[in-house]
């Protein structure tokens, strides 16, 4: 049972990390790049951050 809880918390931490990275990316794009803030931009930033988290997780290093 403990392994199941640990796995759940690990997956939750990955989603939270993607959320933080996505918010940071959106802030940079809106503040410095002049992009218009929208739900679409927020979702795209979150998806790109999630892909980055997966790439870091699966890296051979």
Report on the structure:
The protein is elongated. With about 60 residues, the chain is an all-alpha fold. It is built from two helices and no strands. About 10% of the residues are buried.
**What string, H for helix and E for strand, traces the elements in order?**
HH
Summarize the biggest pleated sheet. none
- The tally of helices reads 2
| Helical content band | over 70%
Q: Terminal Cα separation, in Å? A: 31 Å
Shape: elongated
> What is the radius of gyration computed over CA atoms, rounded to a whole number of angstroms?
14 Å
Provide the β-strand percentage band.
under 5%
Number of E-state strands: 0
| Uncertain residue ranges | none
What structural category do the secondary elements indicate?
mainly alpha
Please, what is the average pLDDT?
93
Query: What oligomeric arrangement do these chains adopt?
Result: single chain
Question: Can I get a quick summary?
Answer:
The protein is mostly helical.
């Amino acid at each position: 049972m403990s392994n199941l809880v640990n796995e759940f918390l690990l997956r939750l931490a990955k989603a939270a990390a993607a959320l933080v990275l996505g918010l940071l990316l959106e802030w940079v794009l809106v503040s410095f790049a002049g992009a218009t803030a929208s739900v679409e931009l927020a979702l795209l930033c979150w998806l790109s951050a999630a892909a980055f988290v997966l790439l870091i997780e699966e890296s051979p290093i």
